[in-house]
Structures are given as C-alpha cells and as structure tokens.
Fold 3-phosphoshikimate 1-carboxyvinyltransferase.
Amino acid sequence: MQENNTHPHSNFAQTSLEQAPQQRTDKFVQGLKERLPVHLKDSFTPDQLAALQLIFGARAWGRHTLDYRTNLTFWRKRYYLILLAGHSSSAPTRNSSEVSLFLKAFITGLLMLCSLVAATVLVVLVLYLMKSALNINYLPDFSFGVWDSFKDIL
C-alpha cells in the first residue's frame, strides 16, 4: 500500500508568494512589523512573511465598521472591553449559516408578531370608535376616554 506523504501545505512557500501581494504595501506585513520588537522587524524572509500571512490572514489589522475599545475598573482591577464588528470576508461555516438562518427566522417571526399585534390594536380601536360614534354604551357611566380624545382632535 502506497502511503501519501503530500502535506496540504507542501507547496506552501511557492503558492503563498504567488498569492501574497507586494510586501511593502501589504497591510498584514505592515501591521506585523509595527508590533514586533526592533531587532526582529527585518529578520523575516519573504517566504516566512507569506506563510505567516496565510496562517494569520483572518486576523487582519484592518479597520472595522464598529471598533469600540475601553478599559473598565472594578474593585481595584482593570479590565478591557473590545467590541468589533464588520463585514466577514471568510466563507460561512455550517454552524454560522444555521445561526444566521435561525436569527433571520426569529426576527421575521418577531416582526410578524408585532405586525399582528399592531393590526389587532388598530382594528379594536376602530371598532371602539365606531361603537362610540353610534352612541352604544355597554357599561353605563364608564369610558376609556378614547372617544373624547378623538372628538377633541377633530
């Protein structure tokens, strides 16, 4: 039986160099070099930088639509809070697709429920105003005040 020794990244350096844009203009490389100590900034070869970009490319140091960062102090301890949101350029996973579908269904159902409640309230209000306009009183000496408010507006 022949054993397949091909690793998924066997042509890693060659394909990474073909896919990676120019080092000087690449945001990933710039972001990486900004965070490295001075003595390490220029120690990587182009192949190593391309490999790092392929591995950590999803963690790009780009701008986000929502980027909120703050520090909080509770009982003499400091905590940090980071809230990031933006467009995802990665392919959706099955789990994220299921969550997205669930959220869409939930929001659609919630909107339908709110619409149904609003329509019901509107129909009841119109029927109540019609009853009041026809001077039909089911409970003598009791009023919600809706008819009086409606008459004041007109």
Q: What stands out?
A: The first helix runs from residue 12 to 19. Residues 94-154 form one domain.
